[in-house]
Design goal:
192 residues; alpha+beta; Protein Transport Mog1p, Chain A; 3-stranded antiparallel sheet; 3 helices; 10 strands; globular
Length: 192
């Protein structure tokens, strides 16, 4: 009985010492902010109150010639005027004005009939990166949607940051406010 008691005390002491040593060595990793997407060439913060729908980061060399969703959020979940914010990318090495035209072409071919694109306005992101602000209406009747998108290139990718809601639930000023917290630079060539 005494031998079992000693073995149990030694095991507990070893467990405690291991736990203390581990606690001193391994600092907790901070949880990434679910509202922030960042990579070597850009950072975007979704508006407070948004809920992440997930991320699908794709290496630059694995991007295709079609837009792929990299991250998405719902802003104002549970409200009648909830909006979806999407970050999409594709492989693209041309200038921003050519990317905006390619983006429009994809919208027309991908969304089918009833796509109206207007209001292509040159703009800059928070840090001065050139971009375009585009207004898109699609669908018919009760399924009509309004999408506002900021489009730019970083030397390796064509990028679309957009917010979509039902027609009448979002306006240009709201969209600009919800998408404003974005910065970008040319994609570093020494990065994968």
């Amino acid at each position: 009985m005494k031998r079992i008691f000693i073995c149990l005390r030694v095991a507990l002491l070893a467990f405690a010492v291991t736990g203390i040593a581990r606690a001193q060595v391994a600092a907790p990793t901070p949880t990434p902010d679910p509202l922030v997407y960042t990579d070597p060439a850009m950072t975007f913060k979704a508006p407070d109150g948004s809920v992440s729908l997930g991320r699908n980061p794709i290496d630059v060399d694995k991007l295709s010639d079609d837009l792929q969703t990299i991250a998405a959020w719902v802003y104002r979940p549970g409200h009648d005027d909830a909006r979806e914010i999407q970050l999409q990318m594709e492989s693209f090495e041309g200038p921003t004005d050519q990317w905006e035209g390619a983006f429009e072409s994809q919208m027309h071919s991908g969304e089918g009939e009833g796509v109206l694109i207007r209001g292509k306005t040159p703009m800059t992101l928070l840090n001065g990166m050139p971009a375009y602000f585009v207004e898109i209406t699609s669908g018919e009747g009760f399924s009509s949607q309004k999408e506002y998108a900021i489009v730019w290139v970083d030397g390796q990718r064509g990028i679309v940051l957009s917010v979509t809601a039902r027609v009448g639930d979002i306006g240009e000023d709201e969209a600009k406010s919800e998408l404003h917290d974005v910065t970008a630079v040319r994609y570093p060539t020494d990065q994968p």
